Amino acid sequence: MRIQPLWYGQLWAYDMITIKSDAEIAIMREAGKITALAREVAGQHIKEGVTTRFVDSKVKACILSHGAKPSFLGYCGFPASTCISVNDEVIHGFPSDRVLRNGDIVKVDVGAYYKGYHGDCAATFAVGEISDKAKKLIEVTEQCFYKGIAAIRPGGRVGDISNAIYRHASDNGFDVVRDFIGHGVGRDLHEGPDVPNYGPAGRGPRLQTGMTLAIEPMINVGTWQVRVLENKWTVVTGDGKLSAHYENTVAITENGVLILTDPT
Predict the structure, then answer these.
(1) pLDDT digits 0-9 by tens, 186-207
(2) Is the pTM of this model over 0.90?
(3) CA-to-CA distance for 91 and 108, rounded, in angstroms?
(4) Which of 22, 93, 98, 168 is surrounded by the fewest CB atoms within 10 Å?
(5) Angle at the Cα of 81 (from 146 to 65), degrees rounded to 5?
């Protein structure tokens, strides 16, 4: 995720955008399948009494078993194969000996590097029985992703995605993290364009066939404001309330939007 918010008033700032060929997208689809399978493995092992370090070990084993490498392990010094963030932790949580408890919600962010390309995806999982508010938060966050990709049109703008995500979250009484955003993905884990989850429609880079994007709503129950813990990685909500995260890598093709991190 990019730390720097990308939209200030009417100003956009983004890196060079790499347009992928059909052959490159086909390889990214392979990387995406492995990444999605690893996310599924995480969900299968998230339960009461399990440590987040154990979940991380299962995800790492899954990625390696398919001939890929964990994208996050060692990235800018990150110490694990997955980001696992619990309850008010938004993103970039360290797997540890923390034991999951009934009622927790757990965000797992996974990346796999395969044949020179990255896949990137995330989801939020429930541990046992969770509150109605937590259930709604998880559902709306996933819906925000689909609202975002539904806004993609040939010749449209990145801001169309951003605005669709923001409006759906806001309409359901939630707020959107500003300080961390989505991004392009491909040979590098983070490429242009930046893809925020807020801002006006009709702004930002043009959407083009061949773009590959990691679209990832991060939605909070309370304030949009966040802070980074002393470990300089883990991001938590500013008010201690719950946050959810959902992400897929997608490609814009001549036939529409293809979700590359689909396990099927």
Answers:
(1) 999 999 999 999 999 999 999 9
(2) yes
(3) 8
(4) 22
(5) 90
Q: What are phi and psi of 119, to 5 degrees?
A: -115, 150
Percent helix, percent strand, percent coil in the chain, to nearest 5: 30, 30, 40
- Dihedral of the alpha carbons of 4, 5, 8, 12, in degrees to the nearest 10: 80
- The stretches of the chain forming alpha helices (DSSP H) are 22-45, 52-65, 132-150, 158-171
Cα 213 to Cα 44: distance, rounded to the nearest angstrom:
26
- In residues, how long is the chain? 264
For 7, residues 6+ apart whose C-beta sits below 8 A from its C-beta are 159, 162, 196, 198, 199, 200, 203, 204
Under DSSP, is residue 140 helix (H, G, I), strand (E, B) or coil? helix
User: Is 84:52 a contact under the CB 8 Å cutoff?
Assistant: yes
Please state the rounded mean pLDDT for residues 20-24.
Answer: 98
Domain 7-259: what homologous superfamily? Creatinase/methionine aminopeptidase superfamily (3.90.230.10)
Tell me how many degrees the CA angle 98-197-33 measures, rounded to the nearest 5: 65
Token pair 């980001």: residue: 83
pLDDT score of 6 more than 50: no
Specify the DSSP class assigned to residue 249: E
Contact (Cβ atoms closer than 8 angstroms) between residue 157 and residue 205: yes
Kindly tell me the sign of the dihedral angle through the C-alpha atoms of 62, 64, 67, 73. Answer: positive
